[in-house]
């Protein structure tokens, strides 16, 4: 495994750790709220930095691979769905928004499988990258809200913060489906070109 793919794999390893620390205060009767929050932010930063760095490392070292083109978006999906599932269970994100995002991500996996069957490794497109940035932004805002709920860190914004976070989730849903349409067009053109 090359350095870029190792960075990508780090997201797969850290995602369940994020999940565990998100629920640690609930499992420990309210204890470890501060520790949990600090660790969640550290994990979040590492996960998101690995997403930025893996592609840069692959291009910089000339080790771009078909495995990396598939592993990178897969690791993105695992990490971001983990964030969003945590937020759903904790009452921060509406379940229907999570479902729309999850359906989109499963649909993309299907599209990639169809393309891979024909020997085409479908890399992330511009719309998918924009969506990924919004996922990260909304996940960060979700963590800010969780921090406020558990520690009262942003009490002055307590009334407006949930609405800001909800709006960011809404933008994430919209961008996810807009980019999904783009991938479906690519799939359609691929099969039309083969006809």
Task: Briefly note the structural class of the backbone.
Answer: mainly alpha
Shape: globular
Element-by-element helix/strand order? HHHHHH
Taking pLDDT < 50 over at least 5 consecutive residues as the criterion, the unreliable ranges are none
What does it look like?
The chain has 195 residues and is mainly α. The protein has one domain: Four Helix Bundle (Hemerythrin (Met), subunit A), CATH 1.20.120. The chain has six helices and no strands. The protein has helices spanning 3-27, 33-61, 66-89, 95-117, 126-151, 161-194. Helix 1 (3-27) runs parallel beside helix 3 (66-89) and helix 4 (95-117) packs parallel to helix 6. The longest helix has 34 residues, at 161-194.
């Amino acid at each position: 495994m090359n350095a870029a793919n190792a960075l990508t794999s780090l997201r797969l390893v850290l995602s369940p750790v994020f999940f565990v620390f998100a629920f640690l205060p609930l499992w420990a009767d309210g204890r470890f709220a501060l520790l949990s929050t600090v660790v969640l932010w550290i994990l979040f930063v590492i996960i998101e930095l690995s997403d930025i760095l893996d592609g840069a490392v692959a291009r910089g070292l000339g080790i771009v691979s078909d495995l990396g083109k598939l592993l990178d978006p897969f690791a993105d999906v695992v990490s971001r769905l983990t964030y969003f599932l945590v937020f759903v269970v904790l009452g921060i994100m509406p379940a229907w928004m999570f479902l729309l995002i999850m359906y989109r991500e499963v649909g993309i996996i299907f599209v990639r499988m169809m393309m891979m069957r024909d020997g085409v490794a479908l890399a992330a497109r511009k719309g998918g990258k924009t969506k990924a940035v919004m996922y990260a932004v909304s996940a960060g805002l979700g963590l800010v809200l969780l921090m406020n709920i558990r520690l009262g860190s942003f009490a002055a914004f307590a009334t407006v913060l949930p609405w800001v976070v909800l709006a960011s989730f809404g933008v994430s849903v919209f961008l996810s489906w807009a980019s999904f349409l783009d991938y479906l067009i690519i799939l359609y053109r691929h099969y039309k070109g083969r006809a």
